[in-house]
């Protein structure tokens, strides 16, 4: 009887662990990353330097504070517009973010992995900056956008681009700004690795 009970407990533990792994794989899949070439990026004005720390210990979340997008064509146009603004009006060498996420569920490559950002002054050399496209002051991003952002972070950890013990921050924690909007900020506070203190 003891052997049967032990065997049943062992089987239950094995099933629970397998379910956890399956759930994790379903929750965090591979992000669909639209390359710079695909969205029609301009070349940078200068070579973008490599990050000082790689893998990075921080992920900084932003919102674009603009109208959102829910189709690939509209999102690509938004990303091109952001790049033009950053390069022309702000005089930066390229779009400031490492990645952008649309409500179409796609991730758009900005500066990409391993590159120094221009999105959060004190953290540019040691973080990945992810901008969710839209204004998220009063409403949260849709589930496709949230899932894509979380998948991107998980992918970065799995591929040694983001440290496994990274800290997740909202832009407002690193600068005097309301970014990433109250609704999105409150949402990311529920995500794994959000840190009250940078």
Describe it for me?
- The chain has a single domain (50-189), classed as Peptidoglycan recognition protein-like (Lysozyme-like, 3-Layer(aba) Sandwich).
- 36% of the residues lie in helices and 16% in strands.
- It is built from 5 helices and 6 strands, in the order H-E-H-E-H-E-E-E-H-E-H.
- Strands 1-4-3-5-2-6 form a 6-stranded mixed sheet.
- The model is unreliable at 4-27 (pLDDT under 50).
Task: Produce a short descriptive summary.
36% of the residues lie in helices and 16% in strands.
Keywords:
alpha/beta, Lysozyme-like, six-stranded mixed sheet, 5 helices
Shape: globular
CATH class: Alpha Beta
Q: How many helices in DSSP terms?
A: 5
Oligomer: single chain
Summarize the amount of helix as a percent range. Answer: 25-40%
Terminus-to-terminus distance: 54 Å
And the CATH topology?
Answer: Lysozyme-like
Helices, strands, pairings?
Layout lengths: L1 H26 L5 E2 L1 H4 L16 E8 L8 H18 L9 E3 L5 E3 L17 E6 L10 H16 L3 E9 L11 H7 L10
